[in-house]
Amino acid sequence: MNNLDIQAIRADFPILKREVNGKPLVYLDNGATTQKPQAVIDAIMAYYTDMNSNVHRGVHYLSQISTDAFEVTRRKVQEFIHAEHDYEVIITKGTTDSINLVATCYGQEFVHEGDEIIISAMEHHSNIVPWQMLCETKKAVLKVIPMNEAGELDMDAYAALLNDKTKLVSVNYVSNALGTINPIREIIRLAHAKNVPVLLDAAQAVQHLKIDVQELDVDFLVFSGHKMYGPTGVGVLYGKEKWLNAMPPYQGGGDMIKDVSFEKTTYNELPFKFEAGTPNIEAGITLNAAIDYINSLGLDNIKAYEDELLAYATERLQEVEGIRFIGTAKEKSSVISFVVDGTHPYDIGVILDKLGIAVRTGHHCAQPVMEQYGIPGTVRASLAVYNTKEEIDALVAGVKRAVAMLV
Prior knowledge:
Mean pLDDT: 95
Low-confidence stretches: none
Strand order of the largest sheet: 4-10-9-8-7-5-6
């Protein structure tokens, strides 16, 4: 049962009223970035109109209210992911920045020659390349959890990969290319049985699923603001206090120090130790409004509606002759990837765009996934709470039209 007023929700997003190529916009590229509600847009305007100032530095009024607002967001994130302490929440530029921070700082302290890092076969490039770079620098070894044809991880193979040389496991919660929801509790349990910490890439999960980092017992969790109805250029690294304290700083500069002399620098306490320089203040403050918006709808309600949409879209798209779904895991979230015999994904995407329908085409920064399936890329429709069954109908009609033109 849908407990949400979808038309009222759509009214909260000004961009959904516009046309593209003379057609009503059908926005199905939410895995890349979500649209922004008026509440977030208003918060951005309010920051620059009422409080623009640097944070954590000044005694004057505008600096104080900007700092307070920035720290409100940190506490809001703490509540949103159920972290034990607000200082375990590091404000970053985004998911990629957060992963690179851990790869650099954790890697510097804990990874040595011959050690092993485990990732999965379905990772985004941002959860592959930083670990490759670390392994090259440290002469460590990158191990990969294989997946089956449905896009599900081989958990027996994963268990066999864990050993005394394993220093970290880094996997996504939800695959951006396949929509697979991974069995993260079992992934974490098996790793912790070997005293191995786990990083969870929640970029495609945090806007769809409730997350409780204490219940999961995850060591690191990363996500981006712009994929959860918030601004670009801001993200979060959650880390357990013991790991963050044990890691060296990521970058040197202002705000991450207590005392500086030419002989020695003393680093700041958490979370500021990892927040060098002026942050994206506007985005950091207005992420608060995005979290409030999600909370006002309720993640349980969002998930139930998006699951309904996903089932409807999967059923309707089966009407397309020659379609092949890429990623058919039993547990999925809000992503449908497909190819159609005799067509290239890019060509379908271009024709859909002419009809005002925005999808993503290509390898979705997950080239190893595409290589496993022997394809150059997919058409990906990714859903959000403001999408409708009528938009799915438009997508299906558009794909049918594209196929008729191309085959």
